[in-house]
Amino acid sequence: MDRRVVNFRFKTASPDEASAHLTKRYSRFRIQAADPRAFGFEHTALGDDNFTIERLTFQARATATMDVTPRFVVGHLLGGRWSLTAGQQNLDVRTPVLYPHREVEHTWHDLHLGLVTIAPEEVIEIARLLGAGPRFAFTGNNPIDTESANVWQAAVQHANRDVLSNPEFMANPLVREEARRTLILALLRTFPNNTMDGPRQPDVGAAPASVRRAVQYIEDNAHAVVDIRGIAEASGLSVRGIQAAFRRTFDMSPLTYLRMVRLEAVRKELRALERDDEGTVSSVAHTWGFVHLGRFAAQYRERFGEPPSTTRHR
Fold first, then answer.
1. I want to staple 33 with a disulfide (CB 3.0 to 4.6 A). Which of 15, 48, 125, 262 is the partner?
2. Where are the transmembrane segments (predicted)?
3. pLDDT digits (tens, 9 = 90+) for 137-176
């Protein structure tokens, strides 16, 4: 289904007009300016019905309450002063912050705020593919670590700079869909949620088409010599492009993904061996291109939580 494109700029010096605009955009929003004569507000948004990247600028001091919004909203402080509370909880706005599913109160002074909004339906669908089960939920409001925050920022920058700022791409619903899926995967890898419980396999089905082509090439050729140029050619992207796409989608490089596929193949073969078979860990590892056995054993243990010898003799 082709989604309606969102592309607007709204500007006013009236707190009441700003409140009405934000209420229509999100949910009930009530602004109280310390000095209404000094108040100013500007709001831009790019995206479609399912996701937007937005910039909001508030001049002067004010407070505001915002009712629960059905969309997932992530805020990022770009300038000025801002505090965000939900009941008795003071949210940390020094990093990207996922709005809680409850009424929040803003306090600001000359605020410049970045927002990403995503409709919940596809987030929940992809979360279930990642193992969340029927009751998906976010369990925290800030990134799990600095690296995850960087993954989120990279996904937002890609969507904003490479897709939404390009009129040709903006007009193409398939390109917007891939950008949205990249954002959703980054959202689920960045903010604590119940897809993070236990080990998880990268979800290829939710990946962009170029990444899926690269994954298919890797899996079809894992037994042979594979290099980054071949992966890039199969994907239809440049070497730099496919490396960036894998980072955004899986938070790993294509060659790290290749190593993971080969480790899975080693594990499968070790499990298939009978106790009295002549096959050894080293011979199976060598078959799949692992020459340095000490490094291989460490990578295997990190991936599966046990040494390969344990798998072999189970």
1. 15
2. none
3. 898 999 988 888 888 999 899 888 888 888 888 888 878 8
